[in-house]
Amino acid sequence: MSSMYRSLLAEGDGEDAPTRVEVRREEDRAAVTLTDPERLNALSAPLVRQLRRALEELVHDPALRTIVLTGADPGFCAGGDLRMMEMAIGHLADGPGTTDTWRWIRNEFGAIARLIGRSDTTFIAALNGPAAGVGLAWALSCDIAIASERAVIVPAFGKLGLLPEVGTSWALTRRLGYQGAFAYYLRGEHLDAQAALRMGIVQEVVEHERLLEAAFVWCDRVSAMPPHAMEMTKPLLRAAADSSWDAALTLEEFAEPSCFTTQAFAEAVRAMRQRSRA
User: Is the whole model's pTM more than 0.85, yes or no?
Assistant: First the structure.
């Protein structure tokens, strides 16, 4: 029985697979760059497998507090690899049928989205150009998304006959509401950086040459916070997105007393008391 999934794993993990992901570490942060610029960093098997391995290693490093995800110019990510899409179509009559495509989407694309969302590390998406498909889904999974003036949000799935994917439906309905997300899908129009900012899809727009610098400013903000504060706030806010007001209040009530026991909180209170007495 042939298996597209096993073939893609072999292709992505082969010794002769080209390098498609670069990692640059600086103190408590890392910049992860998708590097297939001639194809706008399309999600080939080598790129996806290398990205997953890189992120798995980084999020388990206790010294790292932030990870910046970006692309090599001129694009952030064009989304799915068309050759792989053709391969999936060609394998529909094989024994595994659509379940082989499901395995790749869940175990590779979805695994990266879950890694971003479930880790304690703060993820910052730095959109340097067009962002589409699963690449856009990963950016929306990050904790902060910023964009250069050259960034373009590309909602391409509808015109391909596909659905919002890899967490995109969750992210868009929370940013745009049901009707806003429905209209976004139906229009299928490209959004420039300023439009994405107005809609709440990104949190900041900067000059293209300053994109990584601006991302590192967000890293600095994380570094200035006590580690436990960011690590506990991330899962709290993500859970609150799906909670009732009462449930969110209850989560906060259980979490907050732990923070009172930290040295960071005690030092902050002492400093505030000293300033008030001055």
Answer: yes
